[in-house]
Amino acid sequence: MKKIIIILVFCFVMLSLSAETAIWSKGTTDVLPQGRWEVGIFQPLSYGLNETTELSTFALADFVMPNITLKKFWKNMEGWKFTSKHSLLYPSILLNIIAKEGALGILPDNSKIPHIFIISNQFMLSYCYNEYLNIIPKIGFSVALVSGDSDFPTIDMPFVYNRTSIYHENAMFNVGLDLRGNITPKLEYLVDIDKFIMDKEYCEYSYEHKAIIIWKINRRFALSGGYKLSYSDYPSRLQKSTNIIPLIDLQVGFK
Amino acid sequence: MKKKYLVLLTVILIVINGCDIFNTNFDDLEDARMYEAKVITEAPDNPALLKIMTWNIKFGGARIDFFFDGWGDEVLMDEDVVIENTQNIADYINDFQPDIILFQELDIDSKRSAYVDQMQYILDATELNYGAYASQWKADFVPSDGLGRMNSGNAIMSRWEITDAIRIALPLIDQDGLTQYFYLRRNILKTKIQIGDNELQVLNIHAAAYSKDGTKKEQIDIFKGELDDLNTEGLLFVAGGDFNAIPPNSANWLEEGFPDRPDDLGEDYEVEDYDLTDMIEFYADYHPDLPPDDYILYEEASDYLSPYYTHSIYINLPQEAGYDPEIIDIDWNRKLDYLFTNNETGWIANSDSTHQDTRQLSDHCPVTVKLEW
């Protein structure tokens, strides 16, 4: 056991010898520069803790769904950057709130919500082909730790089912690929595709794709817009639907 | 400031409505969804008579106390419960062997009924071969009361091929935009069925239950208009469904008089007062399943104990589970389901049945009648 710990610590130290920071780096393998804050209407509040570590949380959601994510830049290996993200989420308060009668009753009023802790781990590589094209493959898994009586249905809603089915399935895997690059010095594009593998028994899959343009106005503001598309399995046998939503966000940065 | 929020809300509603993100909308006229049994059972080319049935099956919910009943708290059923209830409905159909059925409140893809496709299930479990379905409540997700995905509607099943089927949209109840977006969209399911060398028009309606703005009457009038058009063209029809209206000669018709309304029933589930004129033109122009003289005979003789009532939302009888002796006995208490034809000689005399022995299968019972062919 001691040997394993020593090897792991050694690997972590070796991997942490380099740093790669950038502003407006959400979704990339870079982390925020030390001391910089960024927040968006639909993006989490992020903080550059040091030159290799970034902390983020959806601050407004914290009251009903405490969450925190640690993003760690590990290593730049001959053009390949390696970063990982580790999140902890407690959705039970929110699930209890939306289990109600009437409007916004997403779950039935008689639902029994257990304590649910979600631990997510994402691993990203990034290869800079040139300034116009970064290739970012990613892979991840999430596990749900559930405690207490549980009796509530899945939320079979586009963009939500694939993220919440883990409350019932206890594990979920995802793989994806991002393409990202500059159009002009201030304009950046992002095109991605993700696959979620949700249910081991029924082999349910969900695919998501998004395309956005990010306008880095200055160090203080960035504006992004595009669309997100989902093609997903659901518990319904007749439903395998494609849904699309517009994406728009204003981000603000400090320092 | 308030004005700003109103403008913002209006814009959001317009965007939501325009985008139809949850797929709740329909065109005024749409093709119905067609079904076929997995195994086709041979039907006679020239039957001597046709057995017609109409049945609101409450999505296989049987007598479970749902939240919208006013006193229950159930929202979603387990799959085995839905299968059992739907099989019971299929068993009853197999006992009576109808040739054509008009269904209301049949689910094909709803979370509340565990996504059981009751259309396909019933076709496969009976000798009915073909089906047409028109959704009246469809949404990828209803964000209210935990309902989730919904696809429920009217259906027609037949032993013979349905050669044409369309969904005709009916006017919507006057509601705020957001509620209306996710609410029921009533319709007429209009089909043509080829029986031997002849064609029969079959129309099905489930009119509004909770309208307080005259929409129900408007829907019923449009249905009557469709029948009149067919009649003018000289086409034979069978039409019916759940009209949510009582016969024109009813003795019991005041809303507060019906003994099945719990004191704490929410406003959303209050029906408008019944109007004795709702069905009057149907009775005047076409042949109803039940002659009005027969209907009134029992109602006048024994208050709320007619063998012709087709609906009750609440049961309190000594033989039922959960019987409360403090509450007045309640059983079937109004007729809302009908069948009409423009056949020159009407239905076969005395062939009508109101199947009140199905009390445990739905809050409506089937009505059947026979047509000479």
CATH class of chain B: Alpha Beta
Topology-level CATH name of chain A? Porin
The count of β-strands of chain A is 12
CATH-derived topology of chain B: Deoxyribonuclease I, Chain A
Total domains of chain A: 1
Provide keyphrases for this structure:
heterodimer; A: 255 residues; mainly beta; Porin; twelve-stranded antiparallel β-barrel; 4 helices; 11% helix; disordered N terminus; B: 373 residues; alpha+beta; Deoxyribonuclease I, Chain A; seven-stranded mixed β-sheet; 7 helices; 23% helix; globular
SSE order and pairing:
The complex is a heterodimer of chains A (255) and B (373).
Chain A: H1 2-15, E1 37-40, E2 45-50, E3 53-57, E4 67-77, E5 80-89, H2 92-98, E6 115-130, E7 133-147, H3 161-164, H4 166-169, E8 171-182, E9 187-199, E10 204-216, E11 221-232, E12 242-254
Antiparallel strand pairs in A: 1-2, 1-12, 2-3, 3-4, 4-5, 5-6, 6-7, 7-8, 8-9, 9-10, 10-11, 11-12
Chain B: H1 2-19, E1 29-31, E2 33-36, E3 49-56, H2 79-96, E4 100-107, H3 118-125, E5 130-142, E6 148-158, E7 162-169, H4 177-182, E8 187-195, E9 198-206, H5 215-232, E10 237-242, H6 280-285, E11 287-288, H7 292-301, E12 337-341, E13 353-354, E14 367-372
Helix pairs in contact in B: 2-3
